[in-house]
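Students often ask why inverse folding is considered easier than folding. One informal answer: many sequences map to the same fold, so there is more than one right answer. In these notes we will look at a single instance of the problem. The structure comes first.
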C-alpha cells in the first residue's frame, strides 16, 4: 500500500542528468475483467518495455537505464492475469526502485523516461483523496476501518450486547416496557461510546473524512451524539447491516460514496475558484496566474482539465517555472529547460505541498478559463493591504 510519504518521496525525486541519470516510470493498466480472456494487456506491457529498450539502445543509453529497463521487463513478463494496476519507479543511478500494486484505474500501459517521475496517473487517482475512516454502526456494535485507495483495514471494534430483548420478558406490560427503556438506555450509552471513539480517532489524525454505514433508523438515534466537528467530516452514508455485511461490500459502498463526494467537491470548488477569480478574490485562472500563485505558496486546491497540457520552461537552478518559453530564468538568469508539459513540474509541486488536486472531465467553466484554475488559501498581494481572507 502506498503512503502519502512515499508519494511525496516520488514527487521530490530528481535524476541527476549531468550523470546521465533518468527517472523511469512504468504504469500497467490491466484489462477490464470482461476482456481478460481474449486481449492481453500483459503482452502490450512487454512490448512497451521492449520498445523502450530498443530506443534506449539506439540513443546509446546503455548504462543504468538499460539495467532498469531489463528489470522492468521482468516485472512486465509476470503481469499475465494480474487484475490490479501496477506502477514501477526506478533510477538505478540513484539506487532507486519502488514497485506498487494499485487500483486498476491508471489510464494506459506506458513507460516514461524523464528527469522526474511521471506522477500524473497517480495524481489523477490520489490527488483529492482524503485519509478516510469508515464506521459501520448499529445499536450494539460498531466496526471501524481505514480506507486508503482500495485497501480497507479494520481496527478494534466496539460491542455492547444489549440485554435480553423486551419480547422475552413475556406479556406483562409493565416488565416489557421497563425492559424496552433499559435497552434504549443501553443503546444510548453505546452510541455515546462510539461517538467518543470517533472524536478521539479524528483528533489523533486517524482520518480526515468519515463515511458511516448504518440503517436509517439507527442513524436517527446515532447522529445527534456525534461531536459537531466529527459530523462536519461525514461525507456520506450507506445502509448496512453490521452483523452480516462483508468487508468487500463495505469497501465497495464506501468507495462509491467517496467517488461521488470527490466529483461533486471538485466541481463546487472549481466554480468557487472561478467566481473568486472574477471578483479578484481567492481564485486565479490561466497558467500564468496559477504558476504565480503556486510559487507564492497561496494555492489550496488546483483544478486541471482532464487532458490539460502546456509548454513551459523551468529554471535548472532555482526551479522557477515560466509559461513563456524563454532561454534564461527571469528570477536568477540561469539557463532554462523546456517542458513539453508543464504538468510534469506542477504535479510534483502540488504533491509536495499537499495541495488538493482535481482532474475534471467535461467542465465547461474550466474549459473557458483555460483548463487550469486554483483556489487560494490567501492572496499575498491583498494580505499586505490588510484584506486577507481566510480559507474555508
Ligand atoms: Zn532561476
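Output (designed amino acids):
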Amino acid at each position: 500500500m502506498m503512503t502519502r510519504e512515499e508519494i511525496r518521496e516520488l514527487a521530490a525525486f530528481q535524476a541527476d542528468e549531468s550523470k546521465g541519470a533518468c527517472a523511469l516510470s512504468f504504469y500497467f493498466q490491466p484489462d477490464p475483467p470482461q476482456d481478460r480472456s481474449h486481449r492481453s494487456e500483459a503482452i502490450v506491457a512487454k512490448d512497451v518495455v521492449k520498445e523502450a529498450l530498443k530506443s534506449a539502445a539506439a540513443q546509446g543509453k546503455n548504462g543504468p537505464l538499460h539495467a532498469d529497463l531489463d528489470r522492468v521487463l521482468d516485472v512486465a513478463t509476470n503481469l499475465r492475469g494480474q487484475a490490479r494496476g501496477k506502477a514501477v519507479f526506478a533510477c538505478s543511478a540513484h539506487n532507486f526502485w519502488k514497485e506498487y500494486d494499485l487500483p486498476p484505474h491508471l489510464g494506459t500501459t506506458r513507460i516514461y523516461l524523464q528527469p522526474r517521475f511521471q506522477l500524473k496517473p497517480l495524481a489523477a487517482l490520489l490527488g483529492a483523496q482524503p485519509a478516510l475512516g469508515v464506521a459501520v454502526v448499529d445499536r450494539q456494535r460498531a466496526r471501524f476501518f481505514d480506507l486508503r485507495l482500495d485497501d480497507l483495514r479494520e481496527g478494534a471494534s466496539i460491542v455492547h450486547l444489549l440485554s435480553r430483548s423486551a419480547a422475552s420478558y413475556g406479556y406483562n406490560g409493565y416488565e416489557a416496557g421497563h425492559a424496552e427503556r433499559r435497552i434504549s438506555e443501553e443503546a444510548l450509552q453505546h452510541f455515546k461510546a462510539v461517538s467518543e471513539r470517533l472524536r478521539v480517532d479524528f483528533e489523533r489524525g486517524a482520518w480526515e473524512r468519515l463515511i458511516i454505514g448504518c440503517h436509517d433508523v439507527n442513524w436517527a438515534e446515532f447522529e445527534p451524539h456525534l461531536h459537531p466537528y466529527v459530523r462536519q467530516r461525514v461525507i456520506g452514508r450507506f445502509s448496512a447491516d453490521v452483523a452480516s455485511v462483508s468487508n468487500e461490500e463495505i469497501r465497495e459502498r464506501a468507495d462509491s460514496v467517496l467517488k461521488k463526494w470527490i466529483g461533486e467537491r471538485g466541481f463546487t470548488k472549481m466554480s468557487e475558484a472561478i467566481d473568486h477569480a472574477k471578483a479578484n478574490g481567492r481564485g486565479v485562472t490561466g497558467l500564468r496566474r496559477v504558476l504565480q500563485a503556486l510559487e507564492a505558496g497561496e494555492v489550496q486546491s488546483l483544478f486541471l482539465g482532464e487532458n490539460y497540457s502546456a509548454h513551459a520552461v523551468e529554471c535548472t537552478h532555482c526551479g522557477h517555472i515560466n509559461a513563456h518559453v524563454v532561454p534564461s530564468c527571469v528570477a536568477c538568469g540561469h539557463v532554462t529547460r523546456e517542458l513539453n508539459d508543464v504538468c510534469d513540474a506542477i504535479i510534483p509541486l502540488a504533491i509536495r505541498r499537499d495541495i488538493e488536486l482535481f482532474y475534471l472531465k467535461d467542465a465547461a467553466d474550466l474549459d473557458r478559463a483555460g483548463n487550469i484554475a486554483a483556489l487560494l488559501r490567501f492572496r499575498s498581494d491583498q494580505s499586505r493591504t490588510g484584506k486577507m481572507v481566510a480559507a474555508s
